Amino acid sequence: FGLHARSSDLTSMASSVGSTPSLPLLQLSCAVQSYAWGKRGGSSEVARLKASVDAGFAVREDEPYAELWMGTHAKGPSVISHPPHLQGMPLSSWLEHNPQALLGNKEAAAQRLFNNNQLPFLFKVLSIDKSLSIQAHPNKQHAALLHSQAPDKYPDSNHKPELAVSLTSFEGFCGFRPFEEIWGFVSSVSELRAVVGEENAAA
Q1: Residue-by-residue DSSP string for 89-126
Q2: Angle 203-153-122 (CA atoms, 0-180°, nearest 5)?
Q3: Which of 68, 187, 195, 200 is geometrically suited to a Cys-Cys bond with 125, CB 3.0 to 4.6 A?
Q4: 17-46 pLDDT, tens digit each
Q5: What count of other Cβ atoms lies within 10 Å of the Cβ of residue 104?
Q6: pLDDT tens profile 49-87
Q7: Which of 32, 38, 48 is nearest to 129 (CA)?
């Protein structure tokens, strides 16, 4: 199973497995997330990709277009737009009827799909204009625990390991400064100490 993001079409590739018949190439209509850090208007690759396959999508130059989601996430599920006889069908519904064709035999497919025919990954295209917020991603067991205790604050029970592939020039942070440097800043920068809190800073 593969996902393709091209300016001419956004498609999911279904390849035959074993004796499973070949399946058609599926063109997807994908969700766009308009987070404030995204590039605006036609400068956003996300907006351009969406507009290339969705005739009803109008790009607004004052609107940020941050992420294009390809998958089955409840907050932005992909819908099949081609071939015509499948048009409008959610990708999750198609997976319900064709799990082994995409993910191996039935037993393997059942293990790899989450509940309710959800893919175990979310493929995204990001178009970044500003720094993103810092995020802390729990492991699978901790995520499930947090979700069960406070689903309003932790709506997702899944862990979030991430793999990033840069399509253009990109700068990112990996890891943290040494503890001694962090402590030095907390001790000497009053504004940072105020944000951290006196009790935490003194700990």
Answers
A1: -BHHHHHHH-HHHHHSSHHHHHHHSBGGGB-S--EEEE
A2: 110
A3: 68
A4: 334 456 678 899 999 999 999 999 999 999
A5: 17
A6: 999 988 889 999 999 999 999 999 888 999 999 999 999
A7: 38
User: Which residues, other chains included, contact 127 with Cβ-Cβ below 8 Å and sequence gap of 6+?
Assistant: 38, 39, 43, 44, 45, 46, 47, 65, 66, 67
Give the gyration radius of the chain's Cα atoms.
21
Three-class DSSP category at 127: coil
| pLDDT-wise least confident of 75-89, 102-116, 126-140, 189-203 | 102-116
Each residue of 181-194: pLDDT tens digit? 988 998 889 888 88
Is residue 164 predicted with pLDDT exceeding 90?
no
Sheet of 123-126: strands edge to edge? Answer: 31-33, 67-70, 123-126
The strand pair at 26-29 and 10-13 is best described as: antiparallel
Cβ pair 131, 37 in contact under 8 A = yes
Nearest to 40 by CA among 58, 21, 65, 59: 65
- Return the ∠ at Cα 42 (arms to 40 and 46), rounded to 5°: 75
